[in-house]
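stage 2 :: seqdesign
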């Protein structure tokens, strides 16, 4: 890839991170601000502008010729707008236009955060070398993205691969999205913890009621904690198998906090996958942990900006 730089923004409900990234995925300059998620839309935009301003203060800024943004969603790349569930002040907020204005007219590429992490894992991480992959983030929510035919497949609005809202339980619990029995309603961290508590799991003396605490209890053999992770693994397996059956992916990468649970999640996940991924063309599907860590959103946003630039110039990677 080119040696010039791109700017990248990773926008979530907790923090807004920015970086200048080169064509090898290396981060040269960083900036970050907390997201004022409960304030009005202009306050959130001021935090974005502050991050961009800090990056622009670097002597390297002049080498950045485009910007990639990975944002909590839903996003609408076709309209250039974002409506992050966890940032109520932004509903149909014209982020692409505002970032373009703030940077003197640089071209902007917008994708959802699940798609950004997918781009990073495909470029530098666990899905490297795979032409057809699903990458998932399993944490407070469940997001994802697809690589098909060797290229990122964000879809027209930038949300393709949003596996968290595939229904895997026809008569399941209502999901806040309006559907029922969604993967997210069963497999997200808060839902793993909620189910364990409902079934009688008791937190330790520290009072930690998170999915990480449930994972620790499961490792120690607590049957209720084990069962909650098995149920999450089953939901993930059904969603992954459905995706593989539709579009023939051969690897699924799982990141996010719940993905860090290790064998407590992956052992029942491999077992459940064998129950759901049964057709000949999906039997070689593998599921692996993500490798990119906390910089995945920034590196993936940069990858999207670089890909757009190559498409525009006809240059190869």
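stage 2 :: out
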């Amino acid at each position: 890839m080119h040696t010039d730089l791109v700017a990248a923004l990773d926008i979530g409900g907790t923090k807004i991170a920015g970086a200048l990234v080169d064509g090898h995925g290396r981060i040269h300059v960083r900036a970050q601000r907390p997201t004022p998620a409960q304030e009005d839309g202009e306050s959130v935009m001021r935090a974005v502008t502050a991050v961009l301003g800090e990056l622009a203060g670097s002597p390297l800024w002049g080498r950045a010729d485009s910007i990639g943004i990975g944002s909590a969603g839903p996003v609408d790349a076709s309209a250039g707008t974002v409506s992050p569930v966890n940032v109520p002040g932004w509903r149909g907020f014209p982020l692409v236009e505002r970032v373009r204005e703030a940077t003197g007219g640089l071209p902007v590429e917008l994708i959802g955060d699940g798609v950004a992490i997918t781009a990073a894992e495909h470029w530098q991480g666990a899905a490297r070398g795979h032409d057809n992959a699903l990458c998932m983030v399993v944490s407070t929510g469940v997001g994802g993205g697809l690589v098909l035919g060797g290229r990122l497949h964000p879809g027209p609005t930038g949300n393709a691969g949003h596996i968290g809202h595939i229904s895997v339980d026809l008569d399941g619990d209502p999901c806040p999205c309006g559907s029922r029995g969604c993967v997210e309603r069963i497999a997200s961290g808060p839902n793993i913890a909620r189910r364990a508590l409902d079934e009688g799991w008791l937190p330790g003396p520290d009072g930690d009621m998170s999915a990480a605490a449930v994972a620790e209890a499961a490792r120690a053999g607590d049957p209720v904690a084990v069962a909650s992770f098995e149920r999450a693994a089953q939901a993930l397996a059904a969603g992954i198998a459905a995706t593989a059956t539709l579009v023939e992916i051969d690897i699924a990468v799982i990141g996010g906090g719940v993905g860090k649970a290790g064998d407590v999640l992956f052992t029942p996940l491999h077992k459940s996958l064998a129950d759901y991924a049964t057709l000949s063309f999906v039997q070689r599907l593998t599921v692996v942990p993500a490798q990119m860590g906390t910089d995945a959103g920034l590196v993936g946003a940069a990858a999207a900006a670089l890909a757009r630039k190559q498409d525009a110039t006809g240059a190869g990677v």
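stage 3 :: structure notes
- The chain has a mean pLDDT of 94.
- The first strand starts at residue 5 and ends at 11.
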